Amino acid sequence: MEKYFVLFLVFLNLGVRAADFREFRVFEVSDVCEISTGVRIYVDFGHSGQLRNSGVESNNLCFFTLVTCPSCSIRLSWSPEDPNRCEKFLIVEPPYNVVREKYICDPQREYVSKTRALSLQIPPESTNATFTFFYESLRNVVEVFESSGESTRTIQSPFFPAVYSRDFIVDYNISCLRSDCRIRIIFTDFQLALISTVEFFDVNQERFQIYSGAFFRPPVIFSPNSSIRIRFSAN
């Protein structure tokens, strides 16, 4: 008897303006803090770099924004130089206003963006410490595994119910580890722009279905086998 686990997907739409990008390079915090509007750079897929601080004090809130390719995300990690210091910093993913407060001494010292842009904000009181941030552009892929064959998972657009940003692509690789398992996909919210798409690929990477914002809501979809790839392209 075939087993199913249910997947719910929800998407909304937003248009954002293009921005100017700086050339990729390694930065010092002292250089970033000298610019009141912060520094914004483009990081291509596979490129990486670092933001270093040698303890130079600043009275400014320092902004360091990374932007990568539409089908990429930013992985940020950090390392304190002084184990006795625990400075605070903030992570924001424009254009969303969700602020994540982090500390250099956190046991979990890694963050992967949900979108293609990440803004690192360092308050003045944290600039006199020594630390290093490492960043890397990764392919934007979400892996979902299910071993039991009977469960329900939810996948949603970044920061749902906020509207999604454009020029954004993400692949969801969904696998059930039992050969007799199939995946049932149910859309509960589906508000896409007309040219945005959701594509479905089988285990051989052959597309067997595609839906755009022209559809009110796709029907229930069953995977042909125990794995499926869903590509959401926000255009």
TrEMBL record:
SUPFAM superfamilies: Spermadhesin, CUB domain
Cited InterPro entries: Sperma_CUB_dom_sf
Protein name: CUB domain-containing protein
Biological source species: Phlebotomus papatasi (Sandfly)
